[in-house]
Design brief:
With 240 residues, the protein is an alpha+beta fold. It is built from 7 helices and 9 strands. It is globular, with a radius of gyration of 20 Å.
Length: 240
């Protein structure tokens, strides 16, 4: 591994940067079999997440978790295409959590942090994301009277920030995925990408390989499962 601090060598490298960024950019497609590169390139990205963190000067939301949706707000292929084209929907699906409702130490006494968001394209350059942030604001104001008046500070982050901080965009329209590759037929469950790459000593962990399930649970479980695979393989790799 070559970094700004020098080159480091090890019998094992475990990447949690995503299978597509690892194969197609960090290692380089030229080091893998052609059919494997095609397989990785064709993996469908998961949803992005247009997220807004609200820091409130008082408690407004009581429950620790909410899901808001209407008959018209869940995505069909047609509805999604219209939003991608810039059409503003009346409502969007909103999922929100209140961390201090589960652990009071997560917010100062008398104050509150609410994390809300809606599903969106994983494209870091998706032009409709600012509109979706605004729709989340509108939904929060409509469902919780006085909510926006209590906001001291607001931070919006979406596919562009995810890609900039954690997941390089190496496939057109992808890079800002909320939970790695999509959990769709052909690439989930027993068809999930293997955490063992074709290159001896290179492994994948995180949301893309090594486990099933949802979100951080999936990623954490993957780390533990892949660790066992690596421990079993290290003596054999060192012998080479």
């Amino acid at each position: 591994m070559t970094t700004t601090d020098g080159t480091f060598r090890a019998p094992v490298v475990v990447s949690d940067a995503g299978i597509q960024p690892t194969v197609l950019k960090l290692v380089g497609a030229e080091h893998f079999p052609t059919e494997y590169v095609s397989y990785v390139s064709d993996l469908e990205p998961g949803w992005g997440w247009a997220s807004v963190r609200y820091f409130l000067d008082r408690k407004v939301v009581d429950a620790p978790m909410y899901t808001m949706y209407a008959e018209e707000s869940w995505y069909t292929t047609e509805r999604y295409a219209r939003v991608r084209a810039g059409e503003e929907p009346d409502d969007v699906i909103v999922f929100l959590t209140v961390p201090a409702a589960m652990d009071p130490s997560m917010a100062p006494p008398g104050k509150e942090c609410v994390v809300a968001g809606t599903i969106c394209s994983p494209d870091p350059e998706a032009p409709e994301i600012p509109m979706l942030y605004r729709k989340v604001d509108e939904m929060m104001a409509r469902v919780f009277p006085g909510f926006m008046d209590a906001v001291e500070h607001r931070v919006a982050e979406g596919p562009a920030e995810v890609s900039a901080h954690t997941r390089d965009s190496v496939v057109p329209g992808a890079g800002g995925e909320c939970v790695g590759i999509g959990q769709v037929v052909g690439q989930c469950g027993t068809r999930k990408p293997s955490p063992v790459s074709p290159l001896p000593g290179l492994y994948f962990c995180g949301a893309d390989a090594g486990s099933e399930g949802m979100g951080t649970h999936q990623a954490g479980d993957s780390g533990m499962r892949v660790a066992e695979i690596v421990r079993a393989a290290v003596p054999r790799l060192r012998a080479r």
